[in-house]
Amino acid sequence: MSREEIREALIEGLGTWTSGQKLARSFKISRAAVWKAVQSLRAEGYDIESSKRGYRLASMPDLINEDLVKSGLKTRFVGRTLISRQSVTSTNAEAKRIAPSAENGTVVVAEVQTLGRGRMERSWHSPKGGVWMSVILKPKIPPNLASRVNMAAAVAVARALEGLYGLDVGIKWPNDLLVGERKVSGILTEIGAEMDSLDYAVVGIGINANLDPDLFPEEWKATSLSRLLGRDVLRAELVRRVLEELEEAFADLESSFVEVREEWRRRSATLDRKVRIITMDGEFEGRAEALEADGSLLVRRDDGRRERVFAGDCIHLRPATETPEEGS
Ligand code: BT5
Hints:
By secondary structure, this protein is α+β, with helices and mostly antiparallel strands. It is 30% helix and 27% strand. It is built from nine helices and 14 strands. The chain has helices spanning 2-12, 20-26, 31-44, 66-70, 91-98, 147-165, 225-229, 235-253, 258-266, and strands spanning 48-51, 54-57, 82-88, 107-113, 131-137, 169-172, 176-179, 182-193, 198-207, 274-279, 282-291, 297-301, 306-309, 313-317. β11 (282-291) and β12 (297-301) form a beta hairpin. It starts with a helix and ends in an 11-residue tail after the last strand. The mean pLDDT is 93. Biotinyl-5-AMP is lined by residues 90-92, 113, 116-120, 122, 124-126, 132-134, 175-176, 183, 186-188, 204-206, 208, 216, 220, 222, 327-328.
C-alpha cells in the first residue's frame, strides 16, 4: 500500500525533490520501507532519482500499468479490471481464455505480443512502444448485430486519436484506422455466442504509438503516432481515453446505434472510392456505394451488378490508373 502512496506522491511532485524523511513521516513508515518501495517502482520502469535531497521522479514514465491507466479513468465499467503483462502471445488469445467468467469491460494489455493476430489468420506485428490491448465486452445484443462492436471500437479509437492529438482519422472498411492513406491502428473483434445471444466480444485494438514504422515493410503503408506527431505519446493516457470513448460508444450499441453508425459513415475513407474486394469466394472491382447499418459494404461492380460484402478485404484503387494504392 505504501508503494502506491509513494508513487502518487512522486507523480504529484514530478520533477521536484521530496525527502525520504518526509515521505516516511507522511505515510507512517520507516525510511527503509520508503527505499524498498522506490526500488520496486524502479524495477517497474519508473525513472526515480535519488540524492541527498531525497527522491524525485524525473519524467512521467511511458508505461501501461494498472495504476497509471486507472488514475483519473472516468469509466463506470470499461477498464475497471485491467490485466497488464510484459509479453503475451496475443492479448486477444488471453482475453478469450478468461472471457466466459470475466466482468464486462475487463481489459488485457501487453507491452509486446509474440504472436499478434490480424484478421483471417494474418499476423500483427507488435513490438515495444505500441498499444496492444483487448477489451472483453458483454453487450446485450443478438449475435447477428455483433458487427456493431467492431464499428463502435473503430469510432472510439478514432475519437480518442482526434481528441488527444488533433489527428484527422479515417476508417477504411472494415476495420483499419488511417491517417492520410496510412494505417495507424487495426481492430480485430472475436465473439463467443450461443444461437440467439452474444456471450462476449473480445475487441482487440492495436495502435502503433511510439514506434518506428520503417520497421515494417513499406507495402503495409503503416504509420505511427510518434511519426505523425514528431514526439512520443503517453500510452497510459491514450489507453485511458480509448477506454472512455469505448464505454460511450458501447452505450449506443445496446440502444439505437444511430450516433456511432453515422460517425462511422462520416469517417469512412472507403465510401465513393474505386475498390478491389477480396472475399473467400474470389475478387472483383467496383465503386463503394454505401455502408449498411449492419456494417456491410455495398459495391457497384464494374459490370453494373450491386454486391453486398459482409466480410473480406478492400483495397482502395486510384481512380485514374486503377492500380492499388495500398495494401489490405
Ligand atoms: C487488423 O488485421 O488490422 C487487426 C489487428 C488487430 C491487432 C490487435 S493488437 C491487440 C489484439 N491482439 C491481437 O493478437 N490482435 C489484436 P488485418 O486487417 O488483417 O491487418 C493485418 C495486416 O496488417 C498484416 O497482414 C500486415 O500486412 C499489416 N500489419 C501487421 N502489423 C501491422 C502493424 N503493426 N501496423 C500496420 N500494419 C500492420
